[in-house]
Specification:
The chain has 342 residues and is of the alpha/beta class. It has eleven helices and 15 strands. It has two domains: 2-64, Alpha-Beta Plaits, CATH 3.30.70.1140; 84-338, TIM Barrel (Alpha-Beta Barrel), CATH 3.20.20.70. It is 35% helix and 18% strand. The longest helix is centred in the C-terminal third of the chain and has 17 residues, at 317-333. It is elongated and about 65 Å long. It binds phosphoenolpyruvate and manganese (II) ion.
Length: 342
């Protein structure tokens, strides 16, 4: 059940409703909003009639059942767009955010020079993998903790918040310590124990769509994190696997307007993995903006031909600058504003 508070409700009113929900052996989830607070009551709904009487309380506007299986993620639960704050960068709503960086953190010069360049060009967050999910066990697996330390150094120098992938539960604390936004990669989208782990932390989480995951499955994965009490979730369309072999993945931009309809969570697009080809990244970035994306994830490398991973889809500094110039009018046309660091 959903309890919609009046805009004038104060913290005492919210606490009253939360206690009422707890007294019925249900779990309360207070979703913060700009205008009003929405409180989800999750669990066995035998007591729904008792909950409905809350509508008589002066601070409560409405009480109604949630029809969707993903309850906290559903737009029908919370109508207004959620805005997730990552290192003081707002993601969602009218904001447009570019996250960029190399696929893997390789060495100090590589990551710090990339950070300086992307910041200067208008990226608001630095992305780099320290733990890499590779198809082959013989491929570079990432610098691990050393990579996290290099990301921290880059953050200290550039001011850019850090986005990096959490690959397995045993490194949650370590990765959480260094991250401003924890990435759950496509291959882990349905790693439910990992999703439960990131539901327990306070750091925002970026969930990438699985290689063959449906929209409903992606939303159910987001629901795992929300149900754990971490309400700072961002979704990412990164291409799905289809019969088409002309490019690495099929970037499913249908997902953007559909997800906007179904959920209040911000949605980013990764045209680097979505296409796997440098020449396709800018056109698909423009298309993603037109479709309503809240931001982009772009792979950038000082020397793509020498990259340890995903070199063929990594932009050079010059190509990244050109992409930023090319997308700016599209961001404006979409009615959004590019968020840059002061
Ligand atoms: C990545 O971001 O470098 C990555 C491995 O992405 P995905 O999980 O989407 O394949
Ligand atoms: Mn990559």
């Amino acid at each position: 059940m959903i309890i919609v508070m009046n805009p004038s409700a104060n913290q005492d009113d919210i606490n009253f409703v939360i206690e009422k929900i707890r007294s019925l052996n249900l779990t309360p989830h207070a979703l913060p909003g700009v205008e009003r607070t929405i409180i989800g009551a999750i669990g066995d709904t035998k007591s729904k009639d008792t909950l409905k009487t809350l509508v008589n309380h002066i601070s409560v506007d409405n009480v109604y059942p949630i029809a969707k299986p993903y309850k906290l993620a559903a737009r029908s639960t919370k109508h207004e767009d959620s805005i997730v704050n990552v290192n003081n960068i707002p993601i969602g709503g009218k904001h447009f955010v570019v996250i960029a960086g190399p696929c893997s953190v390789e060495n100090e010069t590589q990551i710090t020079s990339t950070a300086a360049h992307i910041r200067q060009q208008g990226a608001a967050l630095l992305r780099g993998g320290a733990y890499k999910p590779r198809t082959s066990p013989y491929s570079f697996q990432g610098l691990e903790e050393e990579g996290l330390k290099l990301l921290k150094k880059s953050k200290d120098q550039s001011g850019l918040g850090i986005v990096t992938e959490l690959l397995s539960a045993h490194t949650t604390q370590l990765v959480d310590h260094y991250s401003d936004l924890i990435q759950i990669g496509a291959r882990n989208m349905q790693n439910f124990s990992l999703l439960k782990e990131v539901g327990k932390v306070k750091t925002p989480v970026l969930i990438k769509r699985g290689l063959s995951a449906t929209i409903d499955e992606l939303l159910m994965s987001a629901e795992y994190v929300l149900a754990g009490g971490n309400y700072n979730v961002i979704l990412c369309e990164r291409g799905i696997r289809t019969y088409e072999k002309a490019y690495r993945n099929t970037l499913d931009l249908n997902a953007i307007p559909k997800l906007k309809e179904l959920t209040h969570l911000p949605i980013m697009v990764d045209p680097s993995h979505g296409t796997g080809q440098v020449n396709m990244i800018t056109p698909m970035a423009k298309a993603a903006i037109a479709a309503g994306a809240d931001g982009l994830l772009i792979e950038v490398h000082p020397k793509p031909e020498e990259a340890y991973s995903d070199g063929e889809q990594s932009l050079t500094f010059k190509q990244f600058s050109d992409l930023m110039t090319a997308i700016k009018p599209y961001i404006e046309l979409a009615g959004k504003e590019l968020v840059v660091l002061d």
